[in-house]
């Protein structure tokens, strides 16, 4: 089958992982349709309908389409203007003993909707595995820099200190919520089953001569054969398009998380504190040779915005499904659903590549801390003077005057912050000059940030990644190399 992958895979999935690209390829779509027809025929035979063993065996032997069968289906679809019936005809040519019973009692949505539910569930599984890997990589980064003091920002203005590792835990926590929400959406997905043209199962009731029990059993058998624990109890011609909302919502939320992470890194790159990987031969700008543009993070932001807005399509589509079904959702969903998963996949692979090669510049970080820390340390200086017998109000006034002088040096003259030098040069502060280095140690300003990193990784990240499915995915995931 791999020999036909180029023929079968749409161009839009070019940069997605091989697994995700294949999931939404024509090859897998029509293979899944054939598996669904086989499951239906198998269950119908088990319940006494005239389906021969030869028909079943021929269907099993022809689940994968050849290039010639793709051509036949294309010709038939052009003639019949109906994709499902074109493939019913093509499958019948490949499995002639089954030609008369393929799609027996079913409507088109038996294959299209049930296949979509299979794709949604499988796609979410692939996303979960990639997401777990990103969380693992960022967690290693957080642990490595758990206690490296860095300037915090609120309103993008200098604030109190935090640590590089603590900042990373803020990203990871949101990714953990995405992991939870995506897993919940995946585990909630059911099967449409065999419900007939308007969801009443009338065609199957006719096939089984009014035997309601056999119709119910047929639904359960096909659901089990297709790998689902349950089928939705009631449907119209389609499964409710609200399911698409439930699936795309956590993917859109993941897009918001990814955009926030990538934006933070773009801002840090401007500050020259943390950078995404930059290859030795990479060119940042065609004109400005010195540029090191954060193009990977920019790509994450670009694709994440697309991922976030796709959810709107699902909301609008579900809201205008007239009665038992309208067809104005079909073309939209054929674009929206694959794009959501392919986009999420590329966003995660790019984030993994970024997280595996983040470059931290401690000296730059320390320089920026040193520029702001003197102002932050003034309260500590005042308290130290008071402990030595000084007057709090007098010390406050001294610090206020010196701080304004230092601020003038920084803002008006473009010089370095010399507040500490001014304090050292003022005899008033002689009693505590021996303590100044201790009072200005950046690590004394980060609070419990290092301990928060430790406990967060131990109590939240490790349990989340302890799931066997995710642990295996993280353990077998190699480094991601981006060629574009």
Automatic annotation (TrEMBL):
Q: Does the keyword Lyase apply?
A: yes
Q: What Enzyme Commission number(s) does the record list for this chain?
A: 4.3.2.2
**NCBIfam families cross-referenced by the UniProt entry:** purB
Enzymatic reactions? N(6)-(1,2-dicarboxyethyl)-AMP = fumarate + AMP; (2S)-2-[5-amino-1-(5-phospho-beta-D-ribosyl)imidazole-4-carboxamido]succinate = 5-amino-1-(5-phospho-beta-D-ribosyl)imidazole-4-carboxamide + fumarate
Q: Which InterPro entries match?
A: AdenyloSucc_lyase_C, Fumarate_lyase_CS, Fumarate_lyase_fam, Fumarate_lyase_N, L-Aspartase-like, Pur_lyase
Q: Which GO terms describe its biological process?
A: 'de novo' AMP biosynthetic process; 'de novo' IMP biosynthetic process
What PANTHER family does this protein map onto? Answer: ADENYLOSUCCINATE LYASE
Kindly provide the name given to this protein in its UniProt entry.
Adenylosuccinate lyase
Q: What SMART domains does UniProt report for this protein, alphabetically?
A: ADSL_C
Lyase found in the keyword field:
yes
Q: Which residues form the Adenylosuccinate lyase C-terminal domain?
A: 373-457
GO cellular component terms, A-Z: cytosol
Ordered alphabetically, the record's keywords are:
Lyase, Purine biosynthesis
Q: In which pathway does it act?
A: Purine metabolism; IMP biosynthesis via de novo pathway; 5-amino-1-(5-phospho-D-ribosyl)imidazole-4-carboxamide from 5-amino-1-(5-phospho-D-ribosyl)imidazole-4-carboxylate: step 2/2; Purine metabolism; AMP biosynthesis via de novo pathway; AMP from IMP: step 2/2
Q: Which family does it belong to?
A: Belongs to the lyase 1 family. Adenylosuccinate lyase subfamily.
MF terms from GO for this chain are: (S)-2-(5-amino-1-(5-phospho-D-ribosyl)imidazole-4-carboxamido) succinate lyase (fumarate-forming) activity; N6-(1,2-dicarboxyethyl)AMP AMP-lyase (fumarate-forming) activity
Please describe the quaternary structure of this protein: Homotetramer. Residues from neighboring subunits contribute catalytic and substrate-binding residues to each active site.
Against Pfam families, the record matches this protein to: ADSL_C, Lyase_1
